[in-house]
User: Fold these one by one.
Assistant:
Number 1:
Amino acid sequence: MLAIITSWVKRHPIWSGIIVLVLLFMLYRVLRPAPHEYEYLSETVTRGEVLRKVSASGKVRALNTIKVGTEVSGQVTKVYVDFNSVVKAGQVLAEIDPTRVNARVQQSEAQVALARANLQQTVANMARARSELEIQERDFARQKALADRGFVSKAGLDIAQSKLNSARNAVQVAQAQTQSGNAQIRQGTAELSSAQLDLNRTVIVAPASGVIINKLVEPGTTVAASFQTPNLFEIAADTTKMQVEASVDEADIGQVKEGQNVRFTVDSYPQDVFIAKVRQVRQAPVETQNVVSYLVIIDVDNLDGKLLPGMTANVEIITGAKLNALRVPTNALRFRPRIEDRIEEEADKQPADPEKKRPGETVYLASTDAYRPTKKRVQTGLQGDDFTEVTSGIKVGDKVLVRTKSLKPRAPTDDSADEDDDSAS
């Protein structure tokens, strides 16, 4: 049989070569490995900054906001400022119609003048009563001396005694009237002072220097201060220093301390990162729909004036930081290759291996075979959202696997298909 085949091959060399090529091609098609439909993506181990952050949102507020009100009711006749007006302490902001208060002042002045006139009359009566008392005292002394010698009867002495007592009572009455007159003057003076104070309050002045951030009245507005003080203006006392009131979830508030550094952005300037510091962690809980949070007060400089009261701040509170640390992407610690691609080293199967006893994390390093990553156990330090510090187990330049990418062609209409598979198991 072999001789026949050999003879045929010699007679037909071309056909023999074609048959051999076909057989080799079929063998290659059978034995070649199937192409993978995915690949592993890796990132390089580097040195750099590792940050642990607490994210929150808050509002930008003026450091000191003063509400300017009025204690006088009436109609606002003049308003001298507008929104964003820069004012100085003592500057006139508005005026309220003083007609009614002026009438009170004049009435109080008249009452004080009347009380003083009454007091003068009472003082005159007091002087007359004292003079009469002195006359009656002398007359009584004479009558008593005569009565002792028998020249005046007992009845005459009693009449002199009665006149003396009446004079004394008149002096006491005059003294009481004088005290009442003095009290009426003090009362009238107090009412006059109150009326004059209300007259001064019809002119609304700025209690401190700053910027008008809210104006609640216009000329012609009637304000009533009967039960509570109505607010007319709001002044941001110093807009070069602002504060952010951030709401931090109860799960994260334990990491926040006074003095920690803060970074935040606002929607108006998404490319600008503002640097601030935690000034206060308020212990009063705020409960909204069964979610408990705590208010954190953050101080920030606003020398360029970009921050305005009421802006929404996207806050990151730095609760931990390491500089020039050996680091890997945090998701590399969670990533696991597909089961068929994992090579369990012989050492991993030995329970007595000290490597198994040490606590730590597991990462997978890229190897010469793209689908045979190397399992590596590492010791970690500070863990952040983006990077985690590694203290031992790997070195700078190593490639750690971070996710799986699908190589399947995606249908043009399949908008929901995922290109990456980050959770291979």
Number 2:
Amino acid sequence: MRVLVTGAAGFIGADVAHRLLDRGDQVVGLDNLNSYYDVALKEARLARLRARAGFSFQRLDLADRDGMAALFAEAGFERVVHLGAQAGVGYSVTHPHAYVESNLVGFMNVLDGCQRAGVEHLVFASSSSVYGGNRRLPFSEHHAVDHPLSMYAATKKANELMAHTYAHLHGLPVTGLRFFTVYGPWGRPDMALFKFVDRILHDQPIPVHNQGQHQRDFTYIDDITEGVVRSLDRVAAADPDWRAEAPDPASSNVPYRIYNIGNSRPVNLLHYIEVIEDCLGRKADKQMLPPQPGDVQDTAADTTDLSRDVGYRPDTPIEVGVQRFVEWYREYYGA
């Protein structure tokens, strides 16, 4: 297939692009290479993709309406994996307008491009952050998600609503994937694992929010990518059991689906740090801090629907995933 992958210089986007290329798809990667974090890392991910047959790259901002329209009109994409977005919960507290431009305006341009070009299936990234103030664990796609705690979460919830609208009005098949704390080699420097490893190796204290008293459903990158590709191959369809009298948020009477992708084994942050210390052979200097504004207290994914529909359930233990990240970090940075 000919597939557009937005956010192709990003952590998940680059890995998904590699997986699609591995099986023989043609991949057009799109990214604006913004400076939210180290652009050199994005360029390095992109360089590995550029070296592969079947890959081409477009440097373009999602919010560029004319540029996005021209790309969709000319490229002939069969399917689209939309992973490009302004990421980060904390950053959204101080820079909310960046999330409107990228996550709302940009997603509008993706939806419109897919509809006009007759794309067969759009898979897009949502987030476990949409569960917000919900404290009922594990999080299920069948739960209501009406109480976001950050602008980032609000834009991801809005993406799900926008996608459903296009499925209803235009019959565009759409699948939204709620990612749960993704980590692994080539990961983002603003995420906990990268930040902790970097600071421990440089003898700097690590920031531990909420005194470390919260849990995260850490999900290894290979598991996320497998779920994305399998979901892409399973074109969303109307749910024959959906009823307007008791509407299920996870599906619809139009081609729309929402899935969690998480490891389903939530880990206490302090234990996560212990695993990092074991992999590094060094102890961390912990700087205990209050909760970070916008953060969800705990996350845990119910992946029953994903397992049933695509035949896959993430299962990489953190001990394995963290060790692989540490090995990559040492090699990449010579640390």
Number 3:
Amino acid sequence: MKLSRYYLAAGLLSVSAPALAQSLTSAETAQVDKTVTDALAKSGVPSASVAIVRGGKIVYAKAYGKQAETGATRDDAPYQIASVSKQFTAAAILLLQREGKLSLDDHVSKYVPGITDGDTITIRQLLSHTAGLRDYWPQDYSFKAMATPVTPQQIVDRWAKKPLDFQPGTQWQYSNTGYVVAGMIVEKVSGQKLLDFLKARIFNPLGVTVYDQDLAVGSGFPQGYGRAALGPVRPVQPPARGWLYAAGELAMSARALATWDVARLDRKVLAPEDWATQETPVKLADGSSNGYGLGVSTGTANGRRTIEHSGEAVGFLSENIVYPDQKAAIVVLINSWSSDAYQTIAQKLAGIVLSPAAADPVDAAALARVRAAFDQLRDGTLDRSQLTEDASYYFTPTTLGDYRTSLAPLGTPTAFVQTGKPRLRGGFVNRSYRVTYPGTTLSVSTYAEPGPNGKLEQLLVTPTQP
């Protein structure tokens, strides 16, 4: 049940219009449907359930494919979300701290005895994977012991009493064991089972239904699938009860998880200060951080701030990404643990439903000037008042003719975007662009005088790979 970090490619500046603030257009809906169905077809994953938040509202929720060997596919079917559950365990701790019943800086020995160096490990370190406790499930398969039911105490006895992998607070290492301990602390302090506490304090107020993933099996629930290498996709045997617990015990629908994402955006259910605490990266003793907070990972994708976590259960993978500055979120749940389709779908949905990142106004103005010059070259005309003396010298009648005869048959580009950042060279500002046609991609390299109205010193077009 390892964390799988989510990354997107570097952002591009685009001249396309921004997406609508909320509901999906019919064209966007068609793109979403095609994205998911294509990913399932190519990967062999039996089904996916997705939810989209835009403008702070859930605007789309739909399930695709085969959720089990029998029964209809349901949009509200609860998939096992595995480690995405960790943020809920962390939220329970934050709620109890808000009530003065514990502190993130309490040592774990105060609540759970017998843990190695428990008098030096804090609850904050459990939740941020900086405690040094040995992870009980680093494998991406069910190991032998998982065929037998287990209790949280038995996990602690076998793994949390081993020598620490490092001194608490000095390194980051993903540890499901730490979250088992955190769940035990919630139960001791609250006097309730962890899931009962979460239902009473989070899920019931949100009006969503969740399940213990150990019980979300059999008729009416999605079946988990897997495959060996490139072999056939087969149903997999779920683990015995108890193995996920506070590290990943929840099963819920994509819409239900998106409802929680909306609460995060609106700063509801938890106090605003507690949301901020969960999303603040924890620093190591040397002052460094990898961006992980308390049950969530923070970062950027395509220039947008993200709050993210993925999950892996036996036969299931999940991705939950919140874009706080865009008031948006994407949830992707699949019922196979043998494909990265969940991340592929999430990345492509982001490209469909999020407005393009705001461009630097100087870059945007430069893009408009370059695009205008490019269109003139396609037509065999060129406004030489926009060129420096050297650029005008370069565009001889022969060169201008070659540009026209080679570019005009391609028609109008489907995309014209800046790639990378501008840089200075030789007293000019260098910018590069990618021009896309069906089946053809061109690269445009420009140099221009500095300033908003700087003349073009260079505009060269070369073919490239799509």
